[in-house]
Amino acid sequence: MSLKNASLPSVPEITEKEIREALMTEVSNHWFYGKAPAKELTIIDIKHSISFQYLLETFTERRATCSITEPYNGGPWEKQDEGDPPDIEDVPVTPPENFKSYVYHQELPCTTEIYDCEECEGEGSYECPTCFGQGWEFCVYCRGNKWNPLYVDGGDFNCVKCDGSGERTCWDCNGDEDVDCRVCGGSGEMKTYTQLLVVWCNHVDDYIVEKGSSLKGHRLRCATGVTVCEEEGLTLMPLTHFPITAVSLASVELIKRHAKKYKDEKVLKQRHRVFIIPVATVRYQWKKHEGTFYVYGNERLVHFPDYPQKCYCCTIL
Q: Which residues, other chains included, contact 230 with Cβ-Cβ below 8 Å and sequence gap of 6+?
């Protein structure tokens, strides 16, 4: 959807009914706001205006490799001598979805090597380091002397934990004398290969043009509006013919910034959109209070900086 040398579409104004409903919703979201002002205030004036949001997305791809070593538990693999590994740019990989950030990795063909684990010499296990291959260790309660350390006079002299043996089954090997190799996980083999890492990143920048209201840009970014312009392509030209000059200048600046900032990444696609965000600046009066609040966006968000009835105190009953 392109908009060049044409008038902007009309955006429905926020009605007084919508303003009051939005205000009641906002008050209900703050436990320390009294409901009386929202119900009783008099709306003196409603000033309708619009703000523009220009949004630029640059979807890029980066590729890199790293060496991975892990236990080999079987399965197919391509040996290093079965051919030359492909150039990482030639590996056919596509993103699951455009304009969404993802990380993907896979084994690079013809880079795999399988070899015996050096830690266990390919056995998959080695002598238990806790009991030194005995399968047992001294009782920690009697320290191997077989006697009950709490004995005073009379009764059974034997240790109640080891029944007088002075030993207990090794907790590490469970009496097997050997333990699985902690490096290869008991397989006896290791696998080394080159891993291809692909990072798709959606870089987003925007610019807010405020017209007719003093509502700040960081609040307008939280709202959605009506899409009046949308273009997508490999690389985009700025919206130099957009009816609002500030939007055109923002488009020129942001596209130039992205071209410089992401020059070391492969650009897959770009997209820019322009949104019109409706804003209602509301003057109100409640008792002796008079002021201004704002209702904006398709969600009818509310910014009421000086709500007249706030209570942060606690009442002890």
A: 1, 2, 271, 272, 273, 274
SS (H, E, C) 105-122: EEECCCCEEEEECCCCCC
Query: Does residue 54 surpass a pLDDT of 80?
Result: yes
Q: What is the pLDDT of residues 258-294, one digit of tens each?
A: 999 999 999 999 999 999 999 999 999 999 999 999 9
Q: From CA 226, how far away is CA 141, in angstroms rounded?
A: 75
Cα 237 to the chain's mean position, in Å? 31
The average pLDDT across 305-313 equals 78
Cα separation, 215 vs 208, in Å, equals 11
C-beta of residue 294 within 8 angstroms of C-beta of residue 303: yes
List Cβ neighbours of 210 (8 Å cut-off, separation of 6 or more). Answer: 51, 216, 217, 220
Task: Supply the DSSP symbol for 80.
Answer: G
Please check whether residue 2 is in contact with residue 284, taking contact to mean a CB–CB distance below 8 angstroms.
no
Q: What distance in Å separates the CA atoms of residue 182 and residue 262, rounded to the nearest whole number?
A: 43
Residue with tokens 């902007």: 8
Q: Is residue 252 within a helix (H) or strand (E), and if so which, with residue range? A: helix 245-261
Would you say residue 5 has pLDDT above 50? no
Q: How far apart are CA 297 and CA 280, in angstroms?
A: 9
pTM over 0.85: no
Going by C-alpha positions, the residue among 211, 26, 202, 5 that lies closest to residue 100 is: 202
Q: How many helices (H) and strands (E) does the chain have?
A: 4, 12
Contact 280, 48 (CB under 8 A): yes
> CA angle 171-70-178, nearest 5°?
25
Give the 3-state secondary structure of residue 217.
Answer: helix
Reduced to 3 states (helix: H, G, I; strand: E, B; else coil), residue 39 is: helix
- Taking alpha carbons only, the member of 112, 114, 94, 113 closest to residue 104 is 94
